[in-house]
Every structure is written in structure tokens, then in C-alpha cells.
Amino acid sequence: MNRRPAASGVAISLLSLALAAAGGCGTRREGKGVQSTQNDADARRRTTMVEAQIAARGVRDPRVLAAMRKVPRHLFVEPAERARAYEDHPLPIAGSQTISQPYIVALMTELLDLPEHARVLEIGTGSGYQSAVLAEICDEVYSIEILPELARASAQKLAELGYKNVTVREGDGYRGWPEHAPYDGIIVTAAPESVPQPLIEQLAPGGRMVIPVGSFFQELKVFTRRVDGRITEQSIIPVRFVPMTGEIEKEKTPGSQ
Questions:
Q1: Cα torsion through 6, 8, 13, 17, rounded to 10
Q2: What's the DSSP call for residue 29?
Q3: Contacts by residues 46-51 (CB-CB < 8 Å, ≥ 24 positions apart)
């Protein structure tokens, strides 16, 4: 269904986009992101996408629906794929990777259940589309990408579109980004066989991590840090993501596929 190996190698800062100075989760801040043009053909296609693929499947958060209507998915895919950008399936991007189908992007964003003024960590930037959706409803997005070409391209694209509250870094996402922790939400776009403990440790009290877990058979899961420090786990739906690579591979059990 979805995207690239999430993380490997020494982290190298690629591009830091200045953090927005004001506003909160769900608050439309001046100059944040691409300007919406609701009368063009692509805007109409986004509206149809949200109604038919996302809201119809039960996504209800108005912040998420508004972000999905606004972010121009066609600008995050290859030119040859732009005519299919708002269809209900993944599409190829650079590095032999894919951009997740719109419904999965919206569902994972809604499952974060973000508070006002949220700070979010994303493992697996990919095209930058999920980052842009998060940036529409959050104060700060920190994103880590394994593939240098994708890290560079996504950082450039997000900057061109005016997302000043996103910081992209190339590196191994297994250990997260502790310098900016704790996070109100963590979203992972590749599947480890077991959940990276460093990511759990970087959740703020009340924070949620949305992550696909498994090898051949995978489930989308939500891990929540309760205010008393306990971690709860909830299974959502079966999914199919590419495996997480990098340091996480050292934890594979003997005989695992």
C-alpha cells in the first residue's frame, strides 16, 4: 500500500525550514503552505477524493479533511503520474518508492488525535506529502528520510510550497530525533517487525504513535502514552507497507522472513 524503507545510516541535516512563530493545530496561519485555489480542476478533484475515498470511509476530523482538500497531491508525484494523483491507490515516486493512497494518509493523521500546538515526528518523509498534511494542522513537524534523493527533493518541495514549520533530515529513523522530543504524535511509514523502543520513549504524556507492525502480515497500530506513563496498544486495520530498514534489522528474530 505504501512507501519506502524508513531509515538507515548516519543522520545528516539536509534542510531546516524555520518554524512558524504563532498559531496552533487546526489554526490556519498566515503564509503556511500552498495557497488553496478552490475553483481549479485539481481542487475539485481533491474535493471528490475527500468525499468519495476518505469521509465515506469514516474519517471525520475536520482538520484532516480540510488538509486533504488543500494539499496538492499532484505536486508530490512524478509528472507522468499527475493525472492519477487523486485516485484511490499508491503511486510511484523517485527512488523506486511509492506515495501512500490518500485514505491511508488521512487515516493515520486522524489516528494521531493531535492536540493544539502539536509537535510531530515523522519517520519516512518519502515525497513529503504526508509531511505537508501534518504541517497544515500542527505547529512543528520533524521528518527523517533514509534515501538522500528523497530527503533532498521533499525538503525542496515543502520549502517551495511554503511549509515553514517542517524540518527534514536524512538519516536512520530508528532512534527518532531526541533533540526535539517529546512529541505529541509520531507517525511511521514503513513496517518494523517490532516497535522501536526509542520512539516509544519520545512520546509526550498523552501522545500517540501510529505505525504499521509486522513482516508479511502487518497491522496498523496505535501506541498511546498515558499520563501515568503506561503504554497502551490498539490494532486498527491490516495494511501492507514496505519493511523498515536500518538499525531495526538488527532486532530481527532468527528465521524471520
A1: 0
A2: -
A3: 46/70, 46/71, 46/72, 46/73, 46/86, 48/86, 49/73, 49/86, 49/88, 49/102, 50/106
Q: Are 67 and 136 in contact (CB under 8 A)?
A: yes
The pTM of the full predicted model, rounded to 2 decimals, is: 0.85
Give the model confidence (pLDDT) of 41-93 as tens digits: 999 999 999 999 999 999 999 999 999 999 999 999 999 999 999 999 999 99
Q: Pairing between strand 97-99 and 203-214?
A: unpaired
The C-alpha cell at 78 is: 512524478
Q: CA 215, CA 92: separation in Å to the nearest integer? A: 22
What are the residue numbers of the active site?
Answer: 100
How high is the mean pLDDT of the chain? 86
The domain segmentation of the chain, as residue ranges, is: 12-250
Architecture of the 12-250 domain: 3-Layer(aba) Sandwich (3.40)
Tens of pLDDT along 161-196? 999 999 999 999 999 999 999 999 999 999 999 999
What's the one-letter identity of residue 152?
A: R
Q: Are strands 231-239 and 218-225 parallel, antiparallel or unpaired?
A: antiparallel
C-alpha cell at 216: 508479511
